[in-house]
């Protein structure tokens, strides 16, 4: 009998006290998996809620300062020894169970990594500039056109992550990880999911968030020029 592949689900979290319980409760039923949650120095009750949950296979790590999403993901990877590593956002709530759709093709060797493709947003956000920049960056370096360049919901074979050398600490992490994996020759699948998470709107907070995303991604695209030679 073939040994079942182990799965680590890495979740970077910052101020997710409203959603984190539902996200983790949904994930604890995934067979042969462990959850690694990295609290990026939240200033709400996120860490207290996590510690109060009854989840047998849960590793909780807290950063002593806010270091960024990419750094939280790297902390998770450094503490993982699983065959398959799944990256998920903390605000998926009950829909986090859809991670099974991302994991299955990787376990079955249908792809080296998968990326979640969400449905249409429920409310109007920005004007698509961030997504267009990210898509351009991936195509510029790899020639591959994809619609999921910014999705943080992914599953990887361990060897793929071992070949990824550059993971920015900020919002540029997804595009950097995508470009490096594709340039290394790994195969991928975009997977349609019924996941939902918090969406930023067309208000000041939303535009500030997307503005930071845009700058982080632009910085990453520029840095990839030297790192991908």
Provide an overview of this structure.
- With 229 residues, the protein is α/β, with parallel strands linked by helices.
- The protein is built from 8 helices and 7 strands; from the N terminus they run E-H-E-H-E-H-E-H-E-H-E-H-H-E-H.
- The protein has helices spanning 20-27, 46-51, 69-78, 99-107, 129-142, 158-163, 173-183, 204-227, and strands at 7-13, 33-39, 58-62, 84-87, 113-117, 154-157, 188-192.
- A 7-stranded mixed sheet has the order 3-2-1-4-6-5-7, sandwiched between helices.
What attributes does this structure have?
7-stranded mixed beta sheet, about 15% strand
Number of helices: 8
End-to-end gap: 43 Å
Topology, number of strands = 7
**Low-confidence segments:** none
Please describe the biggest sheet, giving its number of strands, its sense, and whether it closes into a barrel: 7 strands, mixed
Shape: globular
Helix/strand order = EHEHEHEHEHEHHEH
Helix content: 25-40%
């Amino acid at each position: 009998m073939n040994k079942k592949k182990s799965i680590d689900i890495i979740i970077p979290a910052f101020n997710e006290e409203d959603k984190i319980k539902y996200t983790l409760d949904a994930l604890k039923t995934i067979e042969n998996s462990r959850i690694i949650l990295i609290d990026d120095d939240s200033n709400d009750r996120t860490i207290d809620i996590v510690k109060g949950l009854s989840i047998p296979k849960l590793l909780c790590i807290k950063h002593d300062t806010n270091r960024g999403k990419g750094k939280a993901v790297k902390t998770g990877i450094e503490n993982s020894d699983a065959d398959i590593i799944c990256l998920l956002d903390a605000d998926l709530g009950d829909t986090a169970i859809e991670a099974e759709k991302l994991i299955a093709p990787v376990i079955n060797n249908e792809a080296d990594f998968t990326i979640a493709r969400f449905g249409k947003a429920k409310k109007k956000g920005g004007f698509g500039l961030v997504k267009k920049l990210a898509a351009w960056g991936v195509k510029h370096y790899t020639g591959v056109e994809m619609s999921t360049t910014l999705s943080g919901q992914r599953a990887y074979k361990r060897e793929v992550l071992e070949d990824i050398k550059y993971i920015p600490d900020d919002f540029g992490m997804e595009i950097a990880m995508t470009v490096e994996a594709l340039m290394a020759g790994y195969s991928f699948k975009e997977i349609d999911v019924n996941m939902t998470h918090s969406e930023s709107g067309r208000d000041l907070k939303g535009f500030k968030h997307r503005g930071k995303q845009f700058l982080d991604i632009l910085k990453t695209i520029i840095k990839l020029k030297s790192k991908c030679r």
